[in-house]
């Protein structure tokens, strides 16, 4: 004799109901290939394989998008990259007062040279008391046919700072046209 909680008649009927296709009693879950019944109020389980195969963006657009991002790095001319690295290092040395402001005349637009001169004269360079500024990395982004926008990280003592700017190709060569220090 079985002890424990008494079972209702509906439980017994559900367990002993014959399977219509075979005429046998089955208590096993539905086979994996067949869709399982979901209880009321629950959503059906999502098949992960169908999610990967059924994307919302067409494959051609995804391919073009990936190719466009890969092309961004290759369209950056090496001369623009070399100029930007040299100009940023010299700019940071000018802000630290290790070089005179006049050395920026060939590298920067005249308005920018004047602005940097005012920063240096008023000792307004960000976190200058922490030590010398050292350029750690920079990136260029195309901003037109002959222009790039840049972001750069530099370090003063334990603190990391950032700057942003624009480099343009003029008749006399590459020039730093805009600058934002933080």
Automatic annotation (TrEMBL):
Residues 1-80 are annotated as: Disordered. Residues 9-22 have a biased composition (Basic and acidic residues). It holds the Pfam family DUF6459. Residues 23-41 have a biased composition (Low complexity). This is Uncharacterized protein. It comes from Nocardia speluncae.
